[in-house]
């Protein structure tokens, strides 16, 4: 029996990998594959690199060690949304004779057609990411023009400003001030930088 690994990823903590796992386990069974490992990244964007996705990193390490010959994934966007990362992933796993099966697209990269389709899907995933980014930026710009605040509300008020200045005058370091006032180091720098302008 051929050995396989399953990789699942969800972007937010309120999503679940259960559906992906259930279907991919069934596919492995139908294909006569033995699942040797299941790799999971939960609450992590597909735009994040390998260094931020422990499951993905371990998947690639397992492939390089030839612990399995096939990787089963729900869809191309579970692997990533950046075309360079997707193509690099495919090159890396194919360099060690490991194939990829993408369920929702029905793509099996053990075939020439599957390899071509994966390349096309990689381009589309990258395009979709760009569209989402453009829409987000346009929405933020519209909100700014309407006078709405973008991001978290600022905790900076007159009392906090005076406390930071006072503590700095007394010789306390930035980290100590931040710790004492339960604010971020960036907030302390922001107040002090504004004071010097």
Low-confidence stretches: none
Shape: elongated
CATH topology of the largest domain: Rossmann fold
The CATH architecture of the largest domain: 3-Layer(aba) Sandwich
Mean pLDDT: 85
CATH superfamily of the largest domain: Resolvase, N-terminal catalytic domain
Query: Oligomer, anyone?
Result: single chain
User: What's the SSE pattern?
Assistant: EHEHEHHEEHHHH
How do the strands of the widest beta sheet line up side by side?
A: 2-1-3-4-5
Q: Kindly report how far apart the N and C termini lie.
A: 70 Å
CATH class of the largest domain: Alpha Beta
Verbal overview:
With 197 residues, this protein is of the alpha/beta class. The protein folds into 2 domains: 2-128, Rossmann fold (3-Layer(aba) Sandwich), CATH 3.40.50.1390; 158-196. 54% of the residues lie in helices and 15% in strands. The chain has 8 helices and 5 strands, in the order E-H-E-H-E-H-H-E-E-H-H-H-H. Strands 2-1-3-4-5 form a 5-stranded mixed β-sheet, with helices on both faces. A hairpin with a 4-residue loop joins strand 4 (99-102) and strand 5. The protein starts with a strand and ends with a helix. 27% of the residues are buried. The model has no long low-confidence stretch (mean pLDDT 85).
